[in-house]
Q: What sequence folds into this?
């Protein structure tokens, strides 16, 4: 099983300098590489304390140069916020420099503050995402940038440096809505599962995606990537206390950043699924949905953590687990202790584990 460290770069309430947040995340990455993690994964967000990581490809270029063997992953590059020509070039540069170590995660974004900041209408996000993804993936296959669409019209130009290899089997997309799942199957990309709902429900969604992927592409879908927030501690009570406190703080920051107590999703084309999520938040209350979120994550003793990770990856047919250790205002010392406990008591078990054949 591939185990990769996932960063969050949160600075909730600006309790630290942004520079210190980044120093802490680099410290986590350094220890993860030393301990034998297989990869380092970075998110993309803008304009708020929620996550201060606007350039995942730039950060991963730093990682690639500093640690020349570790795998690299984006989770995700939000395509509607970028010029897809530049994204294709940045990907090709990083993959060239890293000698093919990059796995590409892509998404369309749901943060109104971010769309407004870039001057991109949210209702255009789905169309922009599809066109940008097609343009980028085709260019990385053929070495030629060319597209004629509603949002992007690109005359034929060579992609330089020329791509060293196709990304068709190493591109994944974050998708939570049924509509987005269908789009990812049509694009022929894998699924990045960010834990936010019951894993059994995720398994049901994955079954439909796999059927459609097989029909459209004539081959089996890639094994999905599984991401979850972690607390690993020899003391189960302390693990639960840290999980409730910091996973709870993280999810409340999600509700705030994405304005899940508001009604903007209901008024925006292409966001019906998120409108339903917002309805649930208002109906059930933030505390209830926060408790549900915590239940989907991983916390406990090393034995408990290993058992849940193996269970959830087997449930959805995943061969990859991407834990987040530092989030929700957690002190760096607590996050490091959690990761060290994971390294000693969980990582060897996961890396020696042979996942079951993907559910079909």
A:
């Amino acid at each position: 099983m591939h185990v990769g460290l996932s960063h969050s770069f949160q600075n909730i309430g600006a309790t630290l300098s942004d520079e210190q947040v980044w120093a802490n995340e680099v410290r986590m990455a350094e220890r993860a590489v030393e301990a034998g993690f297989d990869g380092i994964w970075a998110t993309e967000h803008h304009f708020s304390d929620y996550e201060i990581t606007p350039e995942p490809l730039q950060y991963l270029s730093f990682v690639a140069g500093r640690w020349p063997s570790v795998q690299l992953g984006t989770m995700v590059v939000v395509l509607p916020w970028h010029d897809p020509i530049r994204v294709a070039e940045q990907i090709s540069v990083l993959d060239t420099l890293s000698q093919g170590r990059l796995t590409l995660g892509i998404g369309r974004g749901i943060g109104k503050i971010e769309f407004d900041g870039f001057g991109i209408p949210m209702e255009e996000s789905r169309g922009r995402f599809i066109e940008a993804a097609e343009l980028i993936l085709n260019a990385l296959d053929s070495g030629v940038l060319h597209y004629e669409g509603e949002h992007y019209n690109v005359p034929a130009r060579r992609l330089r440096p020329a791509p060293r290899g196709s990304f068709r089997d190493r591109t994944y997309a974050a998708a939570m809505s049924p509509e987005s799942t269908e789009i990812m199957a049509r694009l022929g990309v894998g699924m990045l599962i960010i834990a936010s709902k019951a894993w059994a429900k995720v398994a049901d969604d994955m079954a439909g995606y796999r059927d459609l992927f097989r029909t459209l592409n004539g081959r089996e879908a890639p094994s999905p990537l599984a991401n979850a927030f972690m607390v690993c501690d020899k003391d189960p009570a302390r693990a639960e206390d840290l999980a409730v406190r910091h996973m709870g703080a993280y999810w409340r920051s999600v509700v705030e950043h994405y304005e899940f107590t508001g009604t903007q999703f209901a008024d925006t084309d292409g966001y019906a699924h998120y409108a339903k999520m917002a309805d649930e938040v208002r109906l059930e209350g933030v505390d209830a949905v926060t408790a549900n979120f915590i239940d989907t994550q991983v916390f406990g003793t090393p034995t408990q953590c290993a058992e849940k990770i193996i269970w959830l990856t087997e449930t959805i047919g995943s061969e990859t687990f991407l834990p987040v250790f530092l989030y929700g205002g957690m002190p760096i010392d607590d996050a490091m202790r959690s990761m060290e406990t994971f390294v000693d008591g969980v990582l060897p078990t996961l890396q020696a584990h042979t996942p079951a054949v993907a559910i079909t």
About this structure: Residues 2-352 form a domain with the TIM Barrel fold (CATH 3.20.20.30). DSSP finds 13 helices and twelve strands in the chain.
